[in-house]
Amino acid sequence: MLSSEEIRVLGDTVGPEWVCTDPCMMDTYSYYMNPEIVNQEGSLWLTRPEAVVMPANTREVSEVVRLCNRLNLMVKPISTGWSATAAASRDRVIVLDLKRMDRIIEIDVKNQIAVVEPYVKAIILQTILWKEGLNLHVVSCGGNHSPLASTTSAWGTGLDGPSMSYSGRNLLGVEWVLPTGDVLILGSAGEGAGWFTADGPGPSLRGIVRGYQGAFGSLGVFTKAALKLYQWDGPPEIEVGGCSPHYIIKDLPSNIGLFMLSFPDAKAMVEAGYRMGEAGINYADFRLPAFMCAIGSTDDNLDLKRIWETGLFQKIANYIMITAVIGYSPREFEWKMKAFRQILSEVGGVNLPINLPDNTRVPERLLKRIRRIVEFIDDPLKLLRKLPFLQDLISRLPINKRQRQKNLSELFWVMLRHANNTQGNFRPSQAMLTTMGTFDTWDLGIRQSDWIAQKKQEYIKKGLFLDDGGDLGCGGTFEQGHMGYLEGITLYSSKDPRSVEAAGKVVEEAVQACIDEAFGIPIAGFGQEMNAKLGPHCGDYHKWMKRIKEALDPNLAVDPFFYVDPGKKTDEDDSQGG
Amino acid sequence: MDLIRLKSLKTDMEKCFRCSLCKMIPLPVVRHPEFTDACPASRLFHFHGYSGSGKQIMALSLLDGRIEPDEALARAVFTCTACGYCDVACKFIMDAERHRVNMVLREHLVDRGLSPPAHKKVRENLRTYGNPKGRPERTAGAWAEGLGLKVLPERKAEVLLFAGCVPSNDPQSAEVVRKLARLLLHAGVDLGILGDAEPGCGLPAYWMGDRDLFTKMASDAVSIFSKTNVRTIVAASGSCLGAFRSKYPEYARAPDVEVLHATEFLLRLISEGRLSLPRPVRARVTYQDPCYLGRQSEPYAKWEGVERTALGVMTYTDPPKPVSRGVKGVYEPPRQILRAIPGIEFNEMYRIREYSFCCGAGGGVPAAYPELARSAAQHRLTEARAVGGELLVTACAYCEAHFRRVQEDGGSQKQPEKMKVVDIIELVYEAAGLDG
């Protein structure tokens, strides 16, 4: 508990109304996504912070951090705060909630750079940028995330990866309140030369700021970040009709194509991803597993159950990639579409007609019939695959205009506006975790996805995970197909201790598999214990992390949660000489 | 006090995974960077506990025995305009009750004696006078003086005009109801009122978490309505309509006759050719969707069923639980009326319909936390100006009076030029040519 004197000095720094210690309010900062896996006893509650402090600017952040050094406190900075990495890890931690720091400092249209504070949300920046013919990379958790946090402190890839890479690649400089309270501006902006590069003059610190995974706020507070922007050839804004939960775009510009592609197998899907990337066709893409297609086709879980049990999605949607194609000009769009069709035909992909009747609210009797028919057909899309012209023909039929517009809208929201993303995955079982997934090659992603799909089956059979068929590997290509990413999602129940225990176990098994199968550093492989496991197989990076933390944070004034606590030893440290 | 009602909503609370989407309008409809916030309290006070998500987490913490009901919790819970937007936001992706948790949490705190002091006074006023302001300046039926309206139930009529409590203390609001009555008479409607016997709709008691009082007021009102034998009740204010259509069935019982808002009834008269709007009204207008005419007037649908499990750990409800996403509120009638008035240039704001931004008048906030009430209204007025509106039209006595008062009081901040705020009935009255 903070002393009244400590509360007073914090209040003097940021204003007393921006310091809160009420237990009820503190508990809203000890409850995040996936806490039960982090807590060994399965509790939903993480450590309650001593206080939450809301600074308004860099000076206040710096002063609070200096105070923490002096008062033997730690800060834990958060921006939009969703996952358990935003929590405090121990007593005497004060959360720096950066919600009041929400200014867009600068948008340099000519040089394609935006400088933002921590609480600027992607959707807000994107709304402004589209009007300027620019766009930013948005990670797959959706448009309400903080691009500063994602770019500087966490890892993330999004559906627009083919054209805008992943978050860590788009950092062009930071203003950084170090764990000592000193303020450092990194890269060209530090020399007053503008925010065009995070590297130099002198050695680049970008690897230290975030490395591969990001430090999750453990290396201080990033109060400004410069983000690389990209050309946007889509509309400056989009007119929207409809209502919740289906907002409908009124007109899709003719230079945008949104597609749902079904491939006969993983190999064909991988090949298509590579080829489209190499040809520069795909603006955005995403491998949508069958069960996620089913989630997206329904508004409630009963409907989801009914359509999943027909077996139809398992037959036609096992290897689905949603893809966006955007042309700068009509000619470019025409060329891209020609190449797109050719690649699709060569790899045996089917452009699924999206104007077919909705799956939901189909009478039970009909669903049973569908189930019986599906049982006897191995490849319901065979005819469309053999006769590609049929795909276009059906798509052009003037039927179900409303359905077509609804589906087009969903594709638009997911791929281009990032408006209906990860959150939807929580609907079936209220808990979701991820395991595999590395920034590597696209086909390695498929191997990871296969591994986790098989592993999950053990738990699905015991009724501990949602029976999604096992394969919930989702992700896409990025950097024109040079890289790819598939994340192994698991849907479990946070209310069933056995399910929670299984979830924790599958994470550990996935990380071990990454070592055994040389899968790379997975998304679930963060935090001190995991890094200590993976580090010896990857240049002992965990030891460097420790040195970095010790050097930058001599008084341990910033919470090391999910990074490295120099004072804490792991089993691996002991066995390998730390 | 027991926690039974709160416990029954624990599953809903646990469905919050703190994505914070309840703080902003649904992402597909974001159009202007300045107007994306959706929760007035979260916008002003920022700490997570003030958001819809925060209240779910605090309720869960209370059930888990981690916190005790105290003044800090009460402040976080009651600094909320009860606009219900967080419920709409969450149901864009989840099937979890948010608004209901917020309201039951209020009720629990009231049971524990933790109501804000200002609310205690208001509730006492409701109990004693049926009016949140206390003894009204004028009697409930005073607004109708000189109109020669039939007073029910002594006399009979097809339609009951329910004026609401605001006109008793607010002459401008009284004038609006008079105009509505004149419009209805002009259209040949067989109209009656309850006069001085008109009961309060009780919505402020609901807002302030006084479950017993609201239930009693609702039951009393429905009994009075039953005695009138009318075919239709027309509510002048959006707030009353939300109470009748959505909250009465939940807490007491639904009125056993058709209940319409003035805009719904006026639109019916226009479509039937019984009311015409020939006179142009030259104005650039924008429209404020009142929360209790919009998302909070969605008819209550009782659900009795069980939660089942399929596919291992997936939960679903059997029979399917109706999900109130707030989209079945009264949105089109006021808009159709505005479009039917010649001369009006109507521009929508950036946050409309189910994702409209609350004016700050609800939840008992003006009485207990005027700073929040003022901030919400000023922010909304800024948005109205941003779309070029010179006239802000609404359809709720609470919204209209609140916008007006906020602009009159001003508060500590420097205020831009005042914007005229009117109830839509005034425009209809003018367009019908009844103002001479």
What can you tell me about this protein's structure?
The complex is a heterodimer of chains A (578) and B (436). In chain A, 38% of the residues lie in helices and 17% in strands. Chain A is an alpha+beta fold and 578 residues long. Chain A has 5 domains: 4-97, Uridine Diphospho-n-acetylenolpyruvylglucosamine Reductase, domain 2, CATH 3.30.43; 104-231, Uridine Diphospho-n-acetylenolpyruvylglucosamine Reductase, domain 3 (2-Layer Sandwich), CATH 3.30.465.10; 240-424, no CATH class; 429-526; 528-575, no CATH class. In chain A, helix 1 (4-14) runs antiparallel to helix 4. The two termini of chain A are 34 Å apart. The relative contact order of chain A is 0.11. With 436 residues, chain B is α/β, with parallel strands linked by helices. Among the domains of chain B are: 1-114, no CATH class; 138-275, Rossmann fold (3-Layer(aba) Sandwich), CATH 3.40.50. Helices cover 42% and strands 10% of the residues of chain B. Chain B has helices spanning 4-7, 10-14, 40-45, 52-63, 71-78, 85-91, 99-111, 117-129, 171-186, 203-207, 211-228, 238-251, 262-271, 332-340, 365-368, 370-386, 397-409, 424-431; strands at residues 150-151, 159-162, 191-193, 232-235, 258-261, 283-287, 306-310, 314-318, 344-346, 391-394, 420-423. A 5-stranded parallel sheet of chain B has the order 1-3-2-4-5. In chain B, helix 11 (211-228) packs across helix 12 (238-251), helix 13 crosses helix 14 (332-340) and helix 16 crosses helix 17 (397-409). The mean pLDDT of chain B is 96. Chains A and B meet through helix 2, helix 5, helix 11, helix 17 and strand 20 of A and helix 4, helix 5 and strand 8 of B.
